[in-house]
Amino acid sequence: MQAHRPVRFLDKTSPPHIGTLMMLTGISALAMNFFLPSLPGMTAYFNTTPAIMGLSVGLYLLVNAVLQIVIGPISDKYGRRQVILGSIVAYLLATLGCIFAPNTTVFLVFRMLQAFIAVTMVLSRAVVRDTTPADKAGAKIAYVTMGMAVVPMVAPTLGGYLEQHYGWHANFWVLFAAGLVALAMAWADLGETAQRREITLGQQYGEMPELLRSPRFWGYAAAASFSSGSFFAYLGGAPFVATDVFHLEPQELGLYFAAPSVGYFFGNFAAARLSTRLGSDRMYLFGMTIIFVSLALSYVLALGGQQSAAVFFGLMVPVGFGNGMSIPNAVSGTLSVRPHLAGTASGLGGAIMLGGGAGLSALAGWALQGGQTAAPLVLIQLLITAAGIVAILLVMRRAARLGAAGIDER
After folding, report:
1. 50 near 43, Cβ under 8 Å?
2. pLDDT at 296
3. 306-317 b/e with 16+ CB inside 10 Å = b?
4. pLDDT of 174-198, one tens digit each?
5. Whose CA is closest to 234, among 246, 242, 223, 244?
6. Which residue from 307, 303, 180, 188 is spatially nearest to 242, judged by alpha carbons?
7. Taking the model in full, what pTM does it have?
8. What's the confidence (pLDDT) of residue 391?
9. How far, in Å, CA of 104 to CA of 106, rounded?
10. Start-end of H helices in 145-258
């Protein structure tokens, strides 16, 4: 498919519509968040323990990370369309397996297979890079990832309602229905966007070191990991802060917890409108600066004993806003270093983000156990944000040096 052509919805001969890409990204987030309110009910249904049922989250993330590494080169070789459609079909079959699972073991196996839907999130970014000029890719990725901001705001609430009135199976039937919609949209609207390459899959994987040898790729990957890391740390630590420090009831936690997602949505919108004008690197730096200032204020208030639940979670709104500005532009940077390896870069960069984020989430939860203040969590987030600022400054410095020398690093 010729890149940068006008978009026509439900026309495979033109680049995919933004709505299709948002659906492909959003369903991945939906599969992660939607059923979480059902975990207690599922624990009772399968007559198991919360720790065992909690593996439905950890194992999903593990398979997700592995897939992000291997799926990029496969899509670079065989094309985005076939891989995306195949992953949705695998997800649909796995969802049916979850619904009809007779015991915990079978359920967890099919839950791991559900992670194939993460392919749609990874490759939707690669599709953007295939069909969008480099200077506009960050803005379009910001629009696409709005789906990942909206879903966490509404999915747990809707999932809790279905769990209360219809049981946990209803959540998975909704996930199945969403998969059917995604499959139909991708089939009708998503043509092939990758440039086919006459090399073997082994040779395709053999080109991965080309990315790993690029300082700019590592710089952007680190920047993306540190930006998302502040949010992952929040996911791991905020429940402890809410219950142990502010003594919130579960329903109150559900209300406060979406604060970063609200900010992220509007940050995505700002990035989509301004990234092309200001440049991806500068937009990332602006976003991280907003995060740093908000967290610094939160940390000072926590140390002084002046922090309430409203203040702590309220200051997470600008943190989410900064993430919405910085993450899409850092991801766009990882894809722009080697455009012919966009799928590989998307998967490898995503795996680095997810692996680092999972570690930071565990670190935040560990640091807050038994604590009486939110300060440890905010300090971890503050240090992560500072590292992200350093990472992008090093990228900008290298780009300036290469530009001065007349070198185009590809």
Report:
1. yes
2. 96
3. ebebebbbebbb
4. 999 999 999 999 999 888 876 766 6
5. 242
6. 307
7. 0.68
8. 92
9. 6
10. 146-166, 168-189, 201-206, 208-212, 215-240, 250-257
Q: Does residue 3 belong to any structural domain of this protein?
A: no
Q: How confident is the model at residue 350 (pLDDT cuts 50, 70, 90)?
A: confident
- Looking at the fold, whether 378 and 317 belong to one and the same domain comes out as yes
pLDDT at 43 over 50: yes
Residue 191 is classified by DSSP as -
Q: Which residues contact 200 (CB under 8 A, 6 or more apart)?
A: 77
Q: Return d(Cα 256, Cα 248) in angstroms, integer.
A: 10
pLDDT bucket at 279, cuts 50 / 70 / 90: confident
Query: Any idea what DSSP says for residue 405?
Result: T
212: number of Cβ within 10 Å: 10
Give me 409's structure tokens.
């690093």
Residues of the chain with pLDDT > 90, as a percent, come to 24
Q: Please calculate the CA angle 203-205-209 and round it to the nearest 5 degrees.
A: 105
CATH code at 199? 1.20.1250.20
- DSSP readout, 295-346? HHHHHHHHHTT---HHHHHHTHHHHHHHHHHHHHHHHHHHHHSSGGGHHHHH
| Residue 305, domain extent | 207-404
Distance (Å, whole) CA 282 – CA 332: 13
Q: Please, are residues 148 and 28 in contact by the beta-carbon 8 Å criterion? A: yes
- Please calculate the CA angle 305-307-308 and round it to the nearest 5 degrees: 130
Quick one: pLDDT at residue 401? 81
| Same domain (yes/no): 295, 159 | no
- Lookup result for tokens 């890149």: 3
Distance CA 113, CA 117 (A): 9
Q: Which residue has the higher pLDDT, 173 or 23?
A: 173
**Domains in the chain, number:** 2
Last residue of a domain, one of 161, 187, 205: 205
Determine the Cα–Cα distance for residues 72 and 99; give it in Å rounded to an integer: 29
